[in-house]
Design a protein that fits this description.
Largest sheet: none
Number of helices: 7
Order of helices and strands: HHHHHHH
Number of domains: 1
Strand content: under 5%
Radius of gyration: 16 Å
Length: 156
């Protein structure tokens, strides 16, 4: 295996998390939660990490499709890692219940592919791999932002 193929494989599968059996997208989302807990207390590092991972996802996606010879291969989970990090970004507070809610909401939206995600997923290459998860993450984040602010107003 060439070094470039190895780097694409490591990046797209998020260090082989995508090769875990049965539910690689769920494992990718859990890896995103693990990263979240590592960097959540430093907003600058969090933001840079999200941008770097999104760029890495767009860079590696098309090449991963060529390597695996399949559109949006199930092994590619960097999109779920990015999606989970965006789902949890800028929330007014964090506790275990909120992280669990974000996980289930993100997996729900990622699986259901609510418009425009359903259309965007059909785009060829990296864009099709990444964009539907980014949309699912935005839906998740918006719902959590509204719910947490509404709940905070009710308790204040």
């Amino acid at each position: 295996m060439k070094i470039r193929e190895l780097i694409v494989k490591l990046t797209a599968t998020f260090f082989y998390v995508g090769f875990l059996p049965l539910i690689p997208g769920t494992f990718g989302s859990l890896a995103g939660i693990g990263l979240f807990y590592l960097v959540k207390d430093n907003p600058f590092i969090y933001g840079v990490l999200v941008l770097v991972l999104i760029a890495a996802g767009f860079w590696s996606g098309t090449q991963a499709e060529a390597y695996f010879k399949k559109k949006d291969p199930k092994y590619v989970v960097i999109d779920e890692v990015c999606g989970m990090l965006i789902s949890l970004a800028f929330l007014p507070r964090y506790d275990f219940k909120i992280v669990v809610a974000a996980f289930f909401l993100f997996r729900f939206f990622d699986t259901l592919k609510i418009y425009p995600a359903c259309r965007l997923q059909g785009i060829k290459g990296s864009m099709g791999i990444m964009i539907d998860d980014l949309v699912a993450a935005l839906y998740t984040n918006i719902i959590l932002q509204v719910a947490l602010r509404f709940a905070w107003c009710k308790t204040s």
